[in-house]
From TrEMBL, chain A:
<dbReference type="Pfam" id="PF00566">
    <property type="entry name" value="RabGAP-TBC"/>
</dbReference>
<feature type="region of interest" description="Disordered">
    <location>
        <begin position="153"/>
        <end position="185"/>
    </location>
</feature>
<feature type="compositionally biased region" description="Basic and acidic residues">
    <location>
        <begin position="155"/>
        <end position="164"/>
    </location>
</feature>
<dbReference type="InterPro" id="IPR035969">
    <property type="entry name" value="Rab-GAP_TBC_sf"/>
</dbReference>
<feature type="compositionally biased region" description="Basic and acidic residues">
    <location>
        <begin position="322"/>
        <end position="340"/>
    </location>
</feature>
<feature type="compositionally biased region" description="Polar residues">
    <location>
        <begin position="165"/>
        <end position="174"/>
    </location>
</feature>
<protein>
    <recommendedName>
        <fullName>Rab-GAP TBC domain-containing protein</fullName>
    </recommendedName>
</protein>
<feature type="region of interest" description="Disordered">
    <location>
        <begin position="321"/>
        <end position="340"/>
    </location>
</feature>
<dbReference type="InterPro" id="IPR000195">
    <property type="entry name" value="Rab-GAP-TBC_dom"/>
</dbReference>
From TrEMBL, chain B:
<feature type="compositionally biased region" description="Low complexity">
    <location>
        <begin position="202"/>
        <end position="212"/>
    </location>
</feature>
<dbReference type="InterPro" id="IPR027417">
    <property type="entry name" value="P-loop_NTPase"/>
</dbReference>
<keyword id="KW-0547">Nucleotide-binding</keyword>
<keyword id="KW-0813">Transport</keyword>
<protein>
    <recommendedName>
        <fullName>Ras-related protein RABC1</fullName>
    </recommendedName>
</protein>
<dbReference type="GO" id="GO:0003924">
    <property type="term" value="F:GTPase activity"/>
</dbReference>
<dbReference type="GO" id="GO:0015031">
    <property type="term" value="P:protein transport"/>
</dbReference>
<keyword id="KW-0472">Membrane</keyword>
<keyword id="KW-0636">Prenylation</keyword>
Length: 340, 212
């Protein structure tokens, strides 16, 4: 019943998480769980956390703090007016944006809007290698080897069609295959997943929601690849060539959410300039949801901002170090997985 | 919200901070105080902020109440909000013993570490007295704690609103009695306590240089 407790039971031993992750979880328990299997909610949540793990790290500077620093730099380079206003009112800590970044706008947006936001953000930054990293990025108890072979993990297009495959061969992790990376939380894809779920498939049966724990989980997991949630979508996308947007992300630049925050600031420029006179006001404006956040516009603006930011950054680098060694040289260390 | 500038519409501005373990009811207490409502709230992320105007005697007061997240992960962030607080309310849940013991083990130390105000008034508040049958911390223990740490003490319920207003009023009265604190909070001139940027100061090894 309680997704959060089940999840903790499995993974929290790593010391990564504390109940702080619960806000992020609320979406799955309260909203999604009503129309999907608990097991699906569980894996959706797990994949979400893999993406945002750095935010919930207990030690060292958390991912969000790093992102706030990036946000500061973004504003400095792309919007002088906003930058100086925030400096002037003493809101340089940018703590008002903390919540947005931690739970990816879930508190600021309605459930449907938040899903849209996530889906758009992740789709915009879809990257095969990142997807693969996430897929393999299991916490301890999750590292499970497929008995057959790890080719599957590379996402061979042949096994893309998980469900067709599954009916003929022995039951594999087909239900989880359908959990897409770029939009594991979209309503439509979730419905899709649940409607296709085999009634006695591996997930519902052995899923972490079942009362009996570890033993059953382990025995089942030895034969099913639970990490393969993304395989099918991932390989599908590989075939259809990932858009060029990805390239900026690949180079290690900052992911979209932080640019979305910058976009929200800029889109609400008038209100912020007029009403925010201290960090108190900023926190109030953000926490009390007084801002207009239009998802599509926000994403569009964020992507433009990122382009601008990358460009300005390069200009600065060129200025500072007369000959910068071109950032974007690709290290062909493991040729296997890089897209041709 | 942005008040009309010029003449401040209050005599004193006091900064009050709410701290304590996750789930003890800090946000509920604040909501109960500022808007007379009680709701099932999601856990606070980072910090939240509410304003309440009070008139005590002849004095018009503006209370800026900072509600902090109780979870440990937010400690580094919330610690910067102790600065300049004239009042700190330590909240525990009378039905959960560990929230009480953590006050001495953790929260009192946090105050020593981060509070910049020597004379800052501290107050101990035991919340959720509406769940009398589940009580795990007696009133006497609360009183003893308060005596040891030299703070005010009250038990309240954000749900039934018992003693909620008294919590804040007692604290404010005590602040008003302390000359060094009223001197700071007077005239409504907001002092900027967030001048430096924690995100920057905490990370000196940043590859960026943000001086402009």
């Amino acid at each position: 019943m309680d997704l959060w407790e089940s999840w903790c039971g499995k993974f929290a031993k790593s010391g990564f998480f504390s109940p702080g992750s619960k806000p992020a979880l609320s979406f799955t328990t309260r909203d999604t769980a009503s129309f999907i299997y608990n097991a699906d909610a569980f894996w959706c949540f797990e994949m979400l956390i893999r993406r945002t793990r750095a935010n919930f790290q207990m030690e060292g500077p958390t991912g969000v703090m790093d992102q706030l620093q990036t946000l500061w730099h973004i504003l400095q380079l792309t919007d002088k007016e906003m930058f100086s206003h925030i400096s002037r009112i003493g809101a340089e800590s940018l703590h008002f944006a903390f919540r947005m970044l931690l739970v990816l706008f879930r508190r600021e947006l309605s459930f449907d809007e938040a899903l849209r936001m996530w889906e758009m953000m992740w789709a915009a930054d879809f990257n095969a290698s990142v997807a693969e990293t996430l897929e393999n990025d299991c916490l301890e108890p999750l590292v499970i080897q497929l008995p057959r072979q790890s080719e599957a993990e590379i996402g061979d297009p042949k096994i893309d069609d998980g469900h067709r495959n599954s009916t003929t061969s022995e039951p594999t992790s087909r239900s989880s295959d359908r959990m897409s990376k770029s939009g594991p939380l979209s309503k439509s894809s979730l419905l899709y997943i649940s409607s296709l779920l085999p009634r006695s498939g591996p997930l519902p049966k052995t899923g972490p929601m079942s009362d009996d724990n570890d033993t059953e989980m382990k025995s089942a997991s030895s034969s099913y690849n639970f990490c393969g949630l993304t395989r099918s979508l991932w390989s599908r996308n590989e075939r259809t060539h990932v858009s060029s947007v990805v390239s900026s992300f690949e180079k290690g630049d900052d992911p979209l959410p932080v640019f979305c925050v910058a976009a929200i600031l800029i889109m609400n420029r008038h209100k912020i300039m007029k009403e925010a006179r201290s960090i108190d006001d900023m926190i109030k404006i953000f926490n009390d949801k007084l801002l207009a956040i239009r998802v599509r516009r926000c994403i569009r603006t964020a992507m433009k901002l990122r382009k601008k930011y990358i460009y300005k950054n390069q200009v600065i680098k060129i200025k500072n170090h007369t000959v910068p060694d071109t950032e974007s040289n690709h290290e062909p260390d493991s040729g296997g997985d890089s897209k041709s | 919200m942005g008040s009309s500038s010029g003449q401040p519409e209050f005599d004193y501005l006091f900064k009050v901070l709410l701290i304590g373990d996750s789930g003890v009811g800090k946000s509920s207490l604040l909501l109960s105080f500022t808007s007379n409502t009680f709701d099932d709230l999601s856990p606070t992320i980072g910090v939240d902020f509410k304003v309440k105007y009070l008139t005590i005697g002849e004095k018009k007061l503006k209370l800026a109440i900072w509600d902090t997240a109780g979870q440990e992960r937010f400690r580094t962030l919330t610690s910067s909000y102790y600065r300049g607080a004239q009042g700190i309310i330590m909240v525990y849940d009378v039905t959960r013993r560990e929230t009480f013991t953590n006050l001495s083990d953790i929260w009192a130390k946090e105050i020593d570490l981060y509070s910049t105000n020597q004379d800052c008034i501290k107050m101990l508040v035991g919340n959720k007295v509406d769940k009398e049958s589940e009580r795990a911390v007696s009133k006497k223990e609360g009183i003893d704690f308060a005596r040891v740490y030299g703070c005010l003490f009250l038990e309240c319920s954000a749900k039934t609103r018992v003693n909620v207003e008294q919590c804040f009023e007692e604290l404010v009265l005590k602040i008003l009695e302390t000359p060094s604190l009223t001197a700071e909070g007077s005239s409504g001139g907001k002092k900027n306590i967030f001048k430096q940027n924690p995100a920057h100061t905490s990370n000196a090894s940043s590859s960026y240089c943000c001086s402009s």
